Hints:
Layout: H1 4-17, E1 33-39, H2 45-60, E2 63-69, H3 74-86, E3 91-94, H4 103-111, E4 116-119, E5 133-136, H5 139-153, E6 161-167, H6 173-186, E7 192-199, H7 204-217, E8 223-226, H8 229-241, E9 251-256, H9 259-266, E10 272-275, H10 281-292, E11 300-302, E12 307-308, H11 310-316
Parallel strand pairs: 1-2, 1-3, 3-4, 4-5, 5-11, 6-7, 6-8, 8-9, 9-10
Antiparallel strand pairs: 10-12
Helix pairs in contact: 1-3, 2-10, 5-6, 7-8, 9-11
This protein binds alpha-L-arabinofuranose.
Amino acid sequence: MMAAAAMTGLLAVSALAGCGDKDAAGGSDDGKLVMGFSQVGAESGWRTANTNDIKAAAPAAGIELKFSDAQGKQENQISAIRGFITQKVDVIAFSPVVTSGWDAVLKEAKDADIPVILTDRAVDSQDTSLYKTFLGSDFVKEGKEAGDWLVKDSAGKTGPINVVELQGTTGAAPAIDRQKGFADAIAANPNIKIVKSQTGDFKRADGKTVMEQFLQSTPKIDVLYAHNDDMGLGAIEAIEAAGKVPGKDIKIITVDAVKDGMTALAAGKINYIVECSPLLGTQLMELAKKVHAGESVEQRILTQETTFTQEQAKAALPDRKY
Ligand code: AHR
């Protein structure tokens, strides 16, 4: 019997498949390039913006999109990808929930001659021929920029600076890399110490719950480093409920720069945000056309990003699209 999760993944794919299934000759019924895309889920504002961007970019590029939401589960992504292989889509793209455990299904796609594009998150497969390219951010750099800001902000201060860290989904590339980049950067100032570190799964509700626990168990918290805006925003609720002032009593650094995060930054509740752009859709569609046409593409394509102080957030907010 097929596992429930696998069934869910397949149903999600077929429900969203709509018309235009690939015909025996290898194109869609109406001649469009067909992309199967497996999304992580809907865990954050970033993810919603990323999904909306991909869904808008596909028709704009004349590509038929079969979109599947894995609801945060790797097994759903694997069954969605298998579904795309069965349907003989032209290109498969996905944002892997976690880094490990993809070799078998990627090999199946390769054997079926369907090119795979990684977006947003990496896999740890040693065999890089299993995918054509990886489009997304440098998460280590993001973590480093967060840490560099804290090192600068702490210059001249004496005594320990206690940091609590809200990590992203365990085993996900952005959680692993943002932790590393930050830890490497703060090593420049031995006064800065990470005193607590726990996952909040990139979700606002989990960020709030874990921050409540941090506040109860840790007498002195100077800084919160949250791997995304949503967890930081959840933590702000916990900090305010504990009678403390976010951005002042506890300094807050986050990653993403979605509208809600930028609003909190402009209001002084967050101190610094490192941008991670979710707007990958247009580039993804261009890459899909190229790999489908057999053109060579760069193995790694980095997203352009910046950082925001409170003043910069005030200036950027009116034009923020997501
Ligand atoms: O992989 C990108 C990360 O995933 C974003 O920073 C986070 O908000 C999302 O859930």
